[in-house]
C-alpha cells in the first residue's frame, strides 16, 4: 500500500521522463561547452540541431533508430531521414532512461535527497552503451578505448545522471508531475 507521499507508478514514470529530458539538456550543455572551448560552433541551437545529411554522418542513436525502423518496416530509410531519426533517438534515449530512473527511484518509500542515485545511474547509462553498442557493431569493446576517451564520455553521462536524479527528486517532493490512476489515489 502506498503512503500519501509515495508517487503512483505513472507519476514516477512521468516525473522520470521530464527529469530525463532535463538531464539530456544538461549532458548536451557539457558537450556543447567542451566543443565550444575547442573552437567549435558558438550557437547552442545550431550545435544541438546540426543537420545530419547522410546515414554515414549519423551518430550512434540515429544508427540504432535506423536499424530499428528498417528492421520493422523492411524498407531502407533515405538519407533525408538521418537528421530527424538521429535527433528523435537522442532525446528518446534521455527521456526513456529517465523514465527507468523514475521507476526505480519512485519505488523506494522516500526518494533520497537531491537524487543521490543519479550519479551512479549516469555511470550505468554510460556503461550500457559500451555493452550494447559493440554488439551492434557501432562501438569497439570498452577495453579498446583509452582512459581519456572513456572519461570524456563518462563525465557528460554523470552530469546527465545527477541532473536527472535531482530533477526527479524535486518533482517527487513537490508532487508537480501528478498522474492519478484512481480518484482516491
From TrEMBL:
Keyword terms of this UniProt record: Membrane, Transmembrane, Transmembrane helix
Ranges annotated as spanning the membrane: 12-33, 116-139, 159-179
The protein's name: DUF1440 domain-containing protein
Amino acid at each position: 500500500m502506498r503512503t500519501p507521499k509515495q508517487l503512483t507508478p505513472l507519476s514516477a514514470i512521468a516525473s522520470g521522463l521530464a527529469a530525463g529530458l532535463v538531464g539530456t539538456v544538461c549532458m548536451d550543455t557539457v558537450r556543447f561547452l567542451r566543443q565550444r572551448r575547442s573552437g567549435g560552433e558558438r550557437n547552442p541551437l545550431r550545435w544541438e540541431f546540426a543537420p545530419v545529411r547522410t546515414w554515414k554522418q549519423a551518430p550512434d542513436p540515429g544508427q540504432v533508430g535506423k536499424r530499428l525502423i528498417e528492421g520493422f518496416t523492411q524498407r531502407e530509410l533515405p538519407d533525408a531521414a538521418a537528421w530527424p531519426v538521429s535527433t528523435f533517438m537522442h532525446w528518446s534515449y534521455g527521456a526513456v532512461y529517465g523514465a527507468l530512473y523514475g521507476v526505480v527511484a519512485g519505488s523506494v518509500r522516500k526518494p533520497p535527497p537531491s537524487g543521490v542515485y543519479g550519479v551512479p545511474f549516469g555511470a550505468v547509462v554510460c556503461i550500457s552503451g559500451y555493452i550494447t553498442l559493440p554488439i551492434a557493431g557501432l562501438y569497439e569493446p570498452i577495453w579498446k578505448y583509452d582512459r581519456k576517451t572513456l572519461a570524456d564520455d563518462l563525465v557528460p553521462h554523470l552530469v546527465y545522471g545527477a541532473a536527472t536524479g535531482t530533477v526527479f527528486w524535486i518533482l517527487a517532493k513537490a508532487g508537480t508531475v501528478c498522474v492519478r490512476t484512481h480518484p482516491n489515489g
